[in-house]
Design a protein that fits this description.
This protein has helices spanning 52-69, 109-119, and strands at residues 6-10, 15-24, 35-38, 73-78, 81-85, 90-93, 101-102, 137-140. With 141 residues, it is an alpha/beta fold.
Length: 141
């Protein structure tokens, strides 16, 4: 992984989904798929580390992602800096999760069907209908 920060969603069978976070100024445009976070200033200090308030925002967003998806979420801030997020607390660590097999378009429909079934527990079976493309989230603080 080369982009930080990012969220990693873990699945039980070794598949992971990554969702990068992009910082853009208010009114800025970001065409890449991921989480777009609009901040009024620079999110990094003079040493290139995330500012504490930005880390807190990302942990809060990770908790929201955890509650929304129902999957284990880890907010990765750097190669040796992350926070494992639970519903009511988080645990900071210097060991981000190992990436399993990344879920991509090449994985096949059965993988996407299984992932969608986990994300939409207690909902209608999707059968063999196509899965919609990833959404771009936009958050402004």
């Amino acid at each position: 992984m080369k982009h930080y920060p990012t969220f990693i969603y873990s699945r039980s069978n070794g598949y992971v989904v990554t969702k990068p976070v992009y910082f853009v100024p208010p009114g800025g445009e970001e065409k890449r798929v991921g989480l777009k976070l609009c901040l009024p200033g620079v999110p990094y200090d003079a040493f290139g580390n995330l500012l504490p308030n930005v880390r807190n925002i990302l942990i809060y967003l990770g908790r929201e992602e955890r509650l929304r998806s129902g999957l284990p979420v880890c907010a990765v801030f750097g190669p040796n800096d992350c926070a494992y997020i639970e519903e009511d607390h988080f645990r900071e660590s210097d060991s981000p999760p190992r990436l399993g097999e990344q879920v991509t378009d090449d994985c096949g429909p059965e993988v996407f069907t299984q992932i969608l079934a986990e994300l939409t527990k207690n909902e209608i079976d999707i059968g063999n209908r196509p899965i919609l493309p990833a959404k771009r989230n936009e958050l402004i603080f």
